[in-house]
Design brief:
With 263 residues, this protein is α/β, with parallel strands linked by helices. It is 26% helix and 34% strand. The protein has seven helices and 14 strands. It has helices at 43-53, 120-130, 138-150, 188-201, 222-230, 252-256, 258-262; strands spanning 2-12, 16-23, 28-36, 60-68, 73-77, 103-107, 112-116, 134-137, 157-162, 166-173, 176-184, 211-215, 234-236, 242-243. A six-stranded mixed beta sheet has the order 8-4-1-2-3-14. Strands 11-10-9-12-13 form a five-stranded mixed beta sheet, with helices on both faces. The radius of gyration is 19 Å and the shape is globular. The chain starts with a strand and ends with a helix.
């Protein structure tokens, strides 16, 4: 079946394979599904089962975008970027091997490249299925979203995007990236420790610099409350998605898949 003017969005990590279908004319999410990935089993075997279970994956789409969901990335100013030394940019932030394949996304308007390690085996599988598609590191899309929000704002803005066991902390100002890092956390105390440490290191005032929260967080939960103890202004970024009335999604789904739904 051909789905003209429909976009297939796939988000894949070592633990999850998730996808959404977006009507490009209505800008509406019309389908969503997510499957767990088991590290102990061959990924190709699991992907075969996902495609059998979800015939929507085998339709023909106007556009296919794959988001590689990992923190194996670093942002490099284009003036300092040398493609011949691409692997060296990651050696200080993550463990890399000479056999790793490196890719990079270009943020044209901001003159930044995001260097990362994609899931090559998953890309190879999807090439056989789709022929061609566009793929990115998920943090490229996250940064693009936040940089657009910061245009015409001369003050620094702090964003935390919470996932199950880690969060990204991003600071932007007037369309420019000031800071980006990923932190592992288990408790609300871990979470606020990294945020307050970053505020201190960058001389940000907790009384005047707001914290914006995205992802797996609700107002009133322990992470929100812990942040609000120390930072005067804490707010949760609203989800502005058009989602089909037929999709009875839990309210956390659009939060957790904020980047996927925005793509």
């Amino acid at each position: 079946m051909s789905k003209i003017y429909h976009k297939l969005l796939i988000q894949v990590s070592l633990k999850k394979f998730s996808f959404a279908i977006k009507d490009k004319l209505a800008h509406e999410i019309t389908y969503f599904a997510s499957e767990a990935i088991t590290p102990a089993r061959p990924i190709e075997e699991q992907l075969d089962k996902f495609f059998q279970k979800h015939p929507e994956l085998s339709d023909k789409y106007d556009e296919v975008i794959v988001l590689h969901d990992n923190a194996l990335n670093t942002f490099v100013p284009r003036d300092l970027f040398n493609e011949d030394s691409i692997g060296s940019y990651l050696q200080y932030t993550t463990k890399v091997f000479s056999t790793d394949y490196f890719a990079y996304d270009e943020l044209e308007a901001n003159k930044i490249n995001n260097v990362y390690v994609p899931y090559v085996n998953i890309n190879n599988y999807l090439i056989d299925k789709f022929g061609s598609f566009t793929y990115h590191n998920i943090n490229t899309l996250l940064l693009e979203i936040l940089l657009k929000k910061s245009i015409q704002n001369d003050t620094k803005e702090v964003y935390a995007f919470l996932q199950k066991d880690h969060f990204e902390l991003i600071i932007v100002q007037n369309g420019e990236l000031i800071f980006f890092n990923s932190f592992q956390y288990q408790t609300a105390q871990d979470f606020i420790y990294y945020i307050l440490f970053t505020y201190e290191q960058l001389s940000l005032d907790v009384e005047t610099t707001p914290l914006h929260l995205l992802g797996r967080i609700d107002m009133g939960d322990s992470y929100y409350e812990e942040a609000y103890k120390y930072i005067r202004e804490v707010n949760i970024v609203e989800n502005k998605f058009f989602i089909s009335d037929d999709l009875l999604l839990h309210h956390q789904v659009p939060k957790q898949y904020y980047i996927l739904f925005h793509s």
